[in-house]
Amino acid sequence: MADLAIAVNNLDFAYAQLNAPARPVLHDVTLNLPKGSRCLLVGANGAGKSTLLQILAGKRLTRSNAKVLGNDVFFKTPDGVTYLGTEWASNPVVRSDLEVAHFLDSVGGYRYKERRDRLLDILDVDLAWHMHEVSDGERRRVQIVSGLMAPWDLLLLDEVTVDLDVLVRSRLLAFLAEETQTRGATIVYASHIFDGMDSWPTHLCHIQLGSTVAPSPLSWPLTGAQGEDEAVPAEVRERMMDPDRSGSRLLELAVHWLEIDKKMRIEKEIREGGKQKRGATGAANGVVTDSEAFYRKYDYSH
Question: What is the pTM of this model?
Answer without folding.
Answer: 0.91
